[in-house]
Amino acid sequence: MKKVVLLCGSHPRHLFVAKELLKHNLLAGMVMEIRENFEPVPPSTLSDLDRQNFILHFNKRSESEKKFFSQIDAEDFKTKIPFLEIKLEELNSDKTYDFINSLKADLMISYGVHKLDDKILTLHNGNNFNIHGGLSPWFKGNTTLFWPFYMLRPNWAGITIHRLTQKLDGGEILHQSLPELNTGDSMHDVANKAVIQATCDLIKIIQLYDSGKDLICHEQKGNGKLFLSEDWTPQTLRVIYNLFNDKIVDMFLNGEITSNPPKIIDFFSEK
Is 2 in contact with 215 (CB distance < 8 Å)? Predict the structure, then answer.
């Protein structure tokens, strides 16, 4: 069976991917980068409206992740597989490189960690992939499961699995996943359903690779946007909560807003 080393963040959605890979006996080992506080404190300079939206937004994110992802403790992994817990400044250290190299895995998957350097990317004969929360090339960079909702295109909220390169979210695409939209879905619900769908797809892809199917990837074509961290501000939440009361999925399903479907790359349609 092909084995994977997973480099992931410490938030519930990241640990969900680790849990599912472990459940299917696909994990050779795991590196976990400690990420920022999951429910951040709002900036003191915000207006009352923006402060309320900020708190609401991150509370709803937390509630949704608890709904979709059962409580997962990182300690559970430490007794079952080789495990390395790191801080951001240790991500590209010799310690991390040596740990990954010692596992002799067939593939490396990253999800929710910061940018990796060239030395780590040379491992596994280049079979290194990233789970990107957004459809590339249209939504690259940061908060890319937020912007489809801001643009009233909830059917464009998906996941891209692509080769890891030094080009941010720009590597060749292996597969893209879209979740099913259902009445009552919040923005965060759709994002979490996208993670679940992509994880299910990823497991099937690894199993097919183990049985001899090639990992066929496609160069990214077309124009998109690289969203920077400063593009998202608390004020952008006014569109989601004050204009549309987080009912954008319902409005799309009811036909009140329209958006053509994206043309995604589907690994399972490859011959």
Answer: no
> pLDDT, tens digit, for every residue of 196-224?
999 999 999 999 999 999 999 999 987 78
> Residue 70: which residues within 8 A CB-CB, separation 6 or more?
none
User: Is 107 in contact with 161 (CB distance < 8 Å)?
Assistant: no
pTM of the model: 0.95
What are the φ/ψ torsions at residue 232 (nearest 5 degrees)? -85, 130
Q: What 3-state class would DSSP assign to 163?
A: strand
How many angstroms separate the CA atoms of 62 and 127, rounded? 33
| Residue 71: how many other CB atoms lie within 10 Å | 7
User: For 132-161, how does the pLDDT look when each residue is reduced to its tens digit (9 = 90+)?
Assistant: 999 999 999 999 999 999 999 999 999 999
Which tokens sit at 55? 């708190």
Write the CA distances from 97 to 42, 101, 127, integer angstroms.
36, 6, 15
